[in-house]
Amino acid sequence: MKIEEIKNTMLDELKSIDDLKALNDLRVKYLGKKGLITELNSEIKNVPNEEKKAFGQKVNEMRTLFQSTYDEIKTRLEEEELNQKLASEAIDISLPSTKVSIGAPNILEKLIEEVEEVCMSMGYDVVDGPEIEEDKYNFEMLNIPKGHPARDAQDTFYLEGEEILLRSQTSPVQVRTMLKGKGEVPVRVICPGKTYRRDDDDATHSHQFMQIEGLLVDKDISLSDLKGTIDVIVKKLFGEDVETRFRPSYYQFTEPSVEVDISCFNCKGKGCNICKHTGWITIAGAGVVHPNVLRMSGYDPEVWSGFAFGFGAERMAMLKYDINDLRVFYNTDLREVKHFDRRELKCDD
Ligand code: DAH
Q1: C-beta separation of 200 from 249 below 8 A
Q2: Which CATH superfamily is domain 107-348 in?
Q3: Are 219 and 301 contacting, i.e. CB atoms less than 8 angstroms apart?
Q4: Which atom of ligand 1 lies nearest, measured to the CA of 215?
Q5: Whose CA is nearest to atom 11 of ligand 1?
Q6: Residues of the chain with pLDDT under 70
Q7: In sequence order, what E strands does the chain have?
Q8: Residue 88: which residues within 8 A CB-CB, separation 6 or more?
Q9: What does the pLDDT look like over 67-87, one tens digit per residue?
Q10: 213 lines ligand 1 (CB under 6 A)
Q11: How many helices (H) does the chain have, and how many strands (E)?
């Protein structure tokens, strides 16, 4: 009687189980060391001899019944648990994904890299010079002595007295390179870098801007070598049909000096806003290295000659990417930066 009762309760309890923890508790309740079935087993000794066998059988049946029901429920619960987990962790691939914004190179840097690449393909080295410069390299050894009016054009930031300054041009790197070269030829370098002038910032001026300086020194170098070289750079940057022209100009460290114009890549010379209806755009100053500059840097102007050029990097990038405000390069408004990056990457969103 007692056995039947326990068995019925056991079955009821097993049926009402709906989680694995409770199922395990039940296993302990019935089959554990002090479990009900285990206890029944030890009661066998108190059972009269003639009933022992039947009693033993019933207890065994009960244990088997518990075990099989237990196994069944366990399998079912485990399956349910797994299905639930799979359902809750499922990924809905039809949901729109979170947008990851990718970075892109700054367009000014890109332009400089393009110039570096063309020049390197022509055998130029890319060199660097200090932004905090000595007066003697920024001016004196470029044939601009103290008190010379040519200094006025470059409103310079002086740092210590009259000797240390923020370079107002990348041209001092010409001097540094030649001094380092100790008379060896050919000298073939370009130097992109930051320059500083006491200008008020507006759409076309900045107190800090980038120049790309170039210098070549060898035997019998003439203005036509300069023209050929600039032509290669310009065609690479603005297109094969773009032409170069030189206009006479004046710089202390070159003689003759020129302004480099390119034919307007936008209107092909017809006249538009970019070229201010002239068909031409000025992008650099250049010339044949002045004999004084060669001499002061240890190259005999009777033997060697050279050319130099200085591009305004922002101006070139503004032209190339149709930007009308140079502050775009230096502000941190990501919307603007991205706008130009995207256009360059030819990407729609
Ligand atoms: N350094 C000049 C400037 O900042 C630009 C320049 C002109 C560089 C002629 C040159 C050059 O190398 O030959 O205005």
Answers
A1: no
A2: Bira Bifunctional Protein; Domain 2 (3.30.930.10)
A3: no
A4: 12
A5: 286
A6: 1, 337-349
A7: 125-126, 132-134, 158-160, 164-166, 187-196, 208-218, 244-251, 254-263, 280-289, 305-312
A8: none
A9: 999 999 999 999 999 999 999
A10: yes
A11: 11, 10
Q: Ligand 1 within 6 A of 171 CB? A: yes
- The answer to whether the CB of 253 falls within 8 A of the CB of 286 is no
Tell how far the Cα of 340 is from the centroid of ligand 1, in angstroms: 28
End-to-end C-alpha distance for the chain, whole angstroms: 80
For 145-189, the pLDDT digits (tens) are 999 988 887 899 999 888 999 999 999 999 999 999 999 999 999
Are 199 and 207 spatial neighbours (Cβ–Cβ below 8 Å)? Answer: yes
What local confidence, expressed as pLDDT, does residue 160 receive? 80
Q: How many CB atoms lie within 10 A of CB 188?
A: 19
Q: Is 107 helix (H, G, I), strand (E, B) or coil?
A: helix
State both tokens at 171. Answer: 């041209």
Residue-wise DSSP of 133-183:
EEHHHHTGGGT--TT-GGGTTS---EEETTTEEE-SSSTHHHHHHHHHHTT
* Ligand 1 nearest-atom number relative to CA 307: 13
Ligand 1 contacts CB of residue 309 (under 6 A)? yes
Longest dimension (CA), the chain: 135
φ and ψ of 17, to 5 deg: -70, 135
Global confidence as pTM: 0.71
The Å distance, Cα 258 to ligand 1 centre, comes to 9
**What residue owns the CA closest to ligand 1's atom 13?**
286
| Averaged pLDDT score across all residues of the chain | 91
Nearest CA to ligand 1 atom 7: 285
Phi, psi of 293 (to 5 degrees): -65, -45
How far does the centroid of ligand 1 lie from the alpha carbon of residue 171, in Å? 6
pLDDT at 346: 46
Query: Which residue's C-alpha comes closest to atom 8 of ligand 1?
Result: 310
Radius of gyration of the chain (CA): 43
Q: Can you say whether the dihedral through the CA atoms of 280, 282, 284, 286 is positive or negative?
A: positive
Q: Is 308 in the pocket of ligand 1 (CB under 6 A)?
A: yes
